[in-house]
Amino acid sequence: MLQTKLTELLGCQYPIVQTAMGWVADPKLTAGTCNAGGFGFLAGATIPPEEMERDILATKALTDKNFGVNFHMYQPNAAEIVELVIKHGVKAVSYSRSPGKDMVSRLKDNGVVCMPTIGLPKHALKAIEMGADVVTVQGGEGGGHTGSVPTSLLIPQVVDAVAGKVPVVAAGGFKDGRGLVAALAWGAEGIAMGTRFLMTLEAPVPEITKNRYVDCNNPSEIIVSRAMDGLPQRMIMNRMLRELEKASAPKKLIIALINGLKFRKHTGASIFGLLKSAIAMSKEGEMTPAQAIMSANAPMIIQKAMVDGSPDEGVLPSGQVAGVIGELLSCEEIINSIVAEAEQRLSVLAKLSSGA
After folding, report:
1. pTM for this one?
2. What is the 3-state secondary structure (H, E, C) of 19-80?
3. Domain ranges of the chain
4. pLDDT (tens digit per residue) in 23-63
5. What's the fold here for domain 5-204+326-354?
């Protein structure tokens, strides 16, 4: 009952995608998702190229299922990641909507499914023009960088706009089978979830940070802020976010420059490479140069919570759905429960439509 164009294209059992959260989507989580019948993406925007190859090989050792790799078109080592994806026969890539036509062509010429994340109908059409095979559409409930249009309104808009050219995957606010059925009813071919997979036993996030997500039982505490890089991001309110909200513009810029240098050392990128990426983002996207520089904040401040286990010293990107998730489960338990509930709801709907 749950075979769709997405499962056919990606070669997975169920139309359930685990998104590539920085510092979170490692080989264990990605393989756990794939082995349970979903489709997982490795995070590739926050690690050096040699570690990307290590993680691809580690994932292959943990699963014989298809999986994907995420990266940012403007990160300094983007071309290297593209070649690693091709070299190791990775099934798909996900990336921002930022145009990178040469890279997309290189990937498509080698049979890699290109699956950008977008937030508006016009962005979906642009992504398709640049060669996208699938578009993941995130509504305002989603974590990290997000828009203001609710998922329930945005998905039908994008489905109508793309008019069947490519499958649409719905993201933002999903955690169960009822959500999957709703997405299918809107015309999507599947769902993508980040926060739900962050809150799993397989996720490498320290327990103290995971518990901060579990303890957040009020969706209204998961707010949209521009304090990180000047662009709207949805995060759980904590001490660090409050400090960033209160900081002056010069102080935020100083913090960003410090974090940019840290990120350069971590990834091995040169200062020139980082500046070049910042300029490219400001030219092609909707970022100002200051916002592009401030984007260096995100990886290193998120690392404090997701890697170092200091949830109040870092920020906590999260979809609002964390406010209604009260436990940590395995990837298999989550996917099995979603599938069982979706099939049950679809059976009920089928009976209603037949008048039984």
Report:
1. 0.89
2. CCCCCCCCHHHHHHHHHCCCEEEEECCCCCHHHHHHHHHHHHHHCCCCCEEECCCCCCCHHH
3. 5-204+326-354, 209-320
4. 999 999 999 999 999 999 999 987 877 899 999 999 999 99
5. TIM Barrel (3.20.20)
